Please model this.
Amino acid sequence: MSEKSPATGRKKSKQDIPKKKKIKAVVSKNKKLPLSPREKIKTAYLKAATVFVAILIVSALSLSLFKRYKTDLKANESGTNLIERIAFGDVKVRINNDHFSHDALKEESCNNELVAYLQKNLKKGDTVISVTHDTGAYTLLMAKLIQKSGKVYFYNPSQKYVDAVKAGAAINGFENRIAAFTLGISDHGFDGLLVHKNNFPDITGKIEQKDYKIPTGYSAVTVKVSSLDGQLPNLQNINLLKINVHEDCSEIIDGAVNLIKRSEKIAVIINYRKEILSESQVFNKLSALGFKAHRIQADGSAKPTDLEEIKRSEKCFLLFKK
Model:
């Protein structure tokens, strides 16, 4: 006999009872069963591994930030990890095995306008001065072009890049054609610093005085600095002065005025970068010495230009000649 509901007075249907059972069944399914000893160990290991990975990530990020923002002063290091590459067709180049050297050599090998100019204009017996903050690959190319009777004077403030050039000279048989010096070039001699951003090679830096306060996020290498007039007081009849540095090169010109005056046929090549040279005084300084600006073209020829036209370019190779 069916029971009546006290609230409604109607008879309870048979469907009311199964609903309660279903709810109980669902609740019973959601209850967690106790873990077995093996599952407990596995869970503990997973938690420990997660914590360990998190600690490693935090440590790596902290170390990266520390390296980026710390200030460090180091001695000039030698090049010990050199590898061999071929550039400009058949020139054997030794470079440091780092990202900067690989990328720089790749870029230098693609600068066809400069290579074309050098191949057209450098000749047997020429004398060249290269003041550079690059791999030195162009120095080896120029040594090849001037042959045994010529000479290249190579100046770079970083010891390991000078070591790379000397090693490249040796494997090409150019030892007597290249005189390489670990020296920064400015308008006078002093003990200085090569200041660069952290996580960047020292060669990308700028030369500063020894008492320069190194800012946060930068490091420095101790370097010797001189002028070209101080280093080469009796040299004359230079055919080419090539400058490729990561800063305004006006002071380099100031320190080479006498050398330039002693060389009637000298040409000056500057690797122009807009962010560095757009407001530079180097144009006025060379103009005062009787030079006119030209832009090196893709075929190696040189087209007259002026500062306003140059400023519209991000980068190019400038030739100054009388």
